[in-house]
């Protein structure tokens, strides 16, 4: 069973798309009203967001560039015109299934900051690759999505008119295999943050550090401050620590290194290699 828009709604949407394409003056408000109708049509148009999301982005960008003035006149870009033509050409034949069948082919993809990997479970095919220098600088969420795309392009290029499922690794899940520290006591579950903090505190105390004054989080200040003192570039320190602003490091973590070896936390944690 399928759902689709009524003939009246289809014709109305087509007419409004044509007005945006051919009228001399288009305001942001005109575009926003048509996008609203596209969003409302989603229950009856398969993959509708693919054909209005870029229009939303263009609208938001135009609105920002005109200080929030919905009545500002804009010129549609090429992508926006392409999407409007898609609605004009396809809305009359669009529908959406009420139930979705099981996928015929299943893919798995994953990414790290060095490369990507893909697996076609149905046909037992694998592929992988490394990121370019520019790609390494991208956010991990971007790399995860690109890994899924590359997996489809590499291992699914032979498929046509096929229902597929892509399983992207969720780095926010709590699966055991994604945990770095596992308890040494049965049932060997991932340890909590408090347990790790207790371990660090124990090591600090055994190293002669005054744990009444310094806590486990002091390691973050000590290690980064010592690294800066040894000549490591600030941008490298920020990237390793996950800081976006140098002000965060300067304000909260950049501490004076005490030269007295008896009380020098940084030296205890990061002893000189010389």
Which terms would index this structure?
alpha+beta, about 270 residues, four-stranded mixed β-sheet, about 45% helix, extended
Cα-atom radius of gyration: 28 Å
Task: Please estimate the helix content.
Answer: 40-55%
Number of strands: 8
Q: Ends: how far apart?
A: 74 Å
Structural classification: alpha+beta
Could you tell me the strand content as a percent range? 5-15%
How would you sum up the major sheet?
Answer: 4 strands, mixed
The DSSP helix count reads 11
Which blocks of ≥5 consecutive residues have pLDDT under 50?
A: 172-177
Average pLDDT over all residues: 85
GO molecular function, one term: DNA binding
Keywords: DNA recombination
Protein name: Tyr recombinase domain-containing protein
Domain Tyr recombinase: 169-254
Report what the structure shows.
This protein is an alpha+beta fold. 45% of the residues lie in helices and 12% in strands. The chain has three domains: 2-97; 105-168, Roll (Ubiquitin-like (UB roll)), CATH 3.10.20; 192-260, no CATH class. Strand 5 (105-111) and strand 6 (115-120) form a beta hairpin. Helix 1 (7-22) packs antiparallel against helix 2, helix 1 (7-22) packs antiparallel against helix 4 and helix 2 packs antiparallel against helix 3. The chain is extended.
What topology emerges from the helices and strands here?
Elements lengths: L1 E2 L3 H16 L3 E2 H13 L12 H13 L7 E2 L3 H13 L5 E2 L7 E7 L3 E6 L4 E6 L2 H4 L3 H16 L8 E5 L24 H14 L11 H12 L4 H8 L4 H8 L11 H5 L5
Parallel strand pairs: 5-8
Antiparallel strand pairs: 1-4, 2-3, 5-6, 6-7
Helix pairs in contact: 1-2, 1-4, 2-3
């Amino acid at each position: 069973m399928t759902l689709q828009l009524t003939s009246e709604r289809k014709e109305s949407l087509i007419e409004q798309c044509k007005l945006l394409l051919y009228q001399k003056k288009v305001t942001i408000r005109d575009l926003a009203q048509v996008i609203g109708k596209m969003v409302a049509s989603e229950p009856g148009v398969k993959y509708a967001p693919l054909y209005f999301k870029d229009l939303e982005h263009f609208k938001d960008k135009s609105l920002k560039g005109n200080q929030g003035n919905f009545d500002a006149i804009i010129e549609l870009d090429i992508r926006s015109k392409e999407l409007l033509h898609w609605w004009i050409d396809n809305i009359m034949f669009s529908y959406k299934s009420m139930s979705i069948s099981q996928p015929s082919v299943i893919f798995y993809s994953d990414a790290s900051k060095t490369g990507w990997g893909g697996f076609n479970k149905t046909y037992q095919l694998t592929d992988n690759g490394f990121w370019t220098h520019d790609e390494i600088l991208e956010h991990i969420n971007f790399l995860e999505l690109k890994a899924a795309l590359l997996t489809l392009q590499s291992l699914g290029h032979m498929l046509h008119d096929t229902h597929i499922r892509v399983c992207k690794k969720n780095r926010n899940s709590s699966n055991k295999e994604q945990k770095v520290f596992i308890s040494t006591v049965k049932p060997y579950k991932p340890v909590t943050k408090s347990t790790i903090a207790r371990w660090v505190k124990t090591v600090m105390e055994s190293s002669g550090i005054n744990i009444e004054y310094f806590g486990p989080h002091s390691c973050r200040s000590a290690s980064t401050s010592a690294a800066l003192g040894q000549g490591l570039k600030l941008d490298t320190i920020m990237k390793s620590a996950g800081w976006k602003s140098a002000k965060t490091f300067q304000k909260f973590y950049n501490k004076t290194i005490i030269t007295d070896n008896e009380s020098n936390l940084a030296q205890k944690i990061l002893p000189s290699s010389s």
